[in-house]
Amino acid sequence: MSDRAPQPVERRLPTEESRQLVALVRDIVSKEIAPRAAEEEEAGHFPREVFTLLSESGLLALPYASEYGGGDQPYEVYLQVLEELAAARLTVGLGVSVHSLACHALAGFGTEEQRAARLPAMLAGGLLGAYCLSEPASGSDAASLRTKAVRDGDDWVLTGTKAWITHGGVADFYTVLARTGVDGPRGITAFLVPGDADGLGAAAPEKKMGMKGSPTAQLHFDGVRVGDDRRIGDEGQGFAIALSALDSGRLGIAACAVGVAQAALDEAVGYATGRRQFGRPVADFQGLRFMLADMATRIEAGRSLYLEAARRRDAGLPFSRQAAMAKLFCTDAAMSVTTDAVQVLGGYGYTLDFPVERLMREAKVLQIVEGTNQIQRMVIARHLAGPESR
């Protein structure tokens, strides 16, 4: 409709290698992801073949050490790759973020023997991971989880149910947080559970308003037995490991949110400059021009916020507060921008003929996953004013 094709995001990347990496991602997106995104999402097709291609291309392991098959890339680069993937299809961008989250515990807290034995296959061996923290009665209050792991000789036996698991039922491995001791955060331990373990089963995927191609399911642990060599970190250290992973994971969600918002803005600009009413493009009308300007400003602000948090992480500085701010702002911005994009397209925006309605539905979940935005506000406030009085 418009001859104004969307321009690629201008990125400030630190090295020539990272610039070539983003060019590779854009090539894969244009050929393998974007052309089929709308059709496959509507059909609920999980693109496992895309994740296999990303693994073969080294794109599932970017922020991890090369000695274990990783890409040795800073978070500043990794997150911009996520943004590019999410702009094409959130199922893919969020899936890469979840896989990286699932590898975090072993990479950061496993023994040298554990990392050497298992991390290369997890990072670059075509495997796909999932992260198991939430439960049916334990969401925002993650420290109240009830899934149990009981010691039996040299093994652990896991029993319980996990909920809202992205890649549930299709993942090759699961990082699982289970209770091994007292109530509360000090009684939780992390385990690495193979996807084909006896006693591990998945319920039917949830029927969701968006991200229909990404399976989200409950996992049932019915006496799942794993060796002590699959315990990650010390007994009782699991909740600290989980929080460490979530700080990084929230940056992944922020980057994905900016990608979704950027895709919606590109569609809105293309439509507004091509659609004519009253004898001129609707983009000539000040009401729409101001709306597009506000959308673009929110996206730029969100991108700057998540990149600053990533650079702090890369420099070894505390970044928990900045990660919460980035997750909060970027996902709220994505919801606002995608809603405005539907409005710019008018009636067409409400139809399946244009992608903005899908982007709006997908943006909503980003305000919920990996800590609702109400939880992010609590995290930020605690950094500012200290813990709440009891």
From TrEMBL:
Q: Does the keyword Transmembrane helix apply?
A: no
Which residue range or ranges hold the Acyl-CoA oxidase/dehydrogenase middle domain?
130-224
Q: Which cofactor does it need?
A: FAD
What region holds the Acyl-CoA dehydrogenase/oxidase N-terminal domain? Answer: 15-125
Where in this chain does the record put each Acyl-CoA dehydrogenase/oxidase C-terminal domain? Answer: 236-384
| Alphabetized PROSITE patterns for the sequence | ACYL_COA_DH_1, ACYL_COA_DH_2
The GO terms describing molecular function are: acyl-CoA dehydrogenase activity; flavin adenine dinucleotide binding
Q: Identify the InterPro entries for this entry.
A: Acyl-CoA_DH_CS (IPR006089), Acyl-CoA_Oxase/DH_mid-dom (IPR006091), Acyl-CoA_Oxase/DH_mid-dom_sf (IPR046373), AcylCo_DH-like_C (IPR036250), AcylCo_DH/oxidase_C (IPR009075), AcylCoA_DH/ox_N (IPR013786), AcylCoA_DH/ox_N_sf (IPR037069), AcylCoA_DH/oxidase_NM_dom_sf (IPR009100)
- SUPFAM superfamilies registered for this protein in UniProt: Acyl-CoA dehydrogenase C-terminal domain-like (SSF47203), Acyl-CoA dehydrogenase NM domain-like (SSF56645)
Homology family = Belongs to the acyl-CoA dehydrogenase family.
Please report the name of this protein according to its UniProt entry.
Acyl-CoA dehydrogenase
Q: Which organism is it from?
A: Streptomyces halstedii
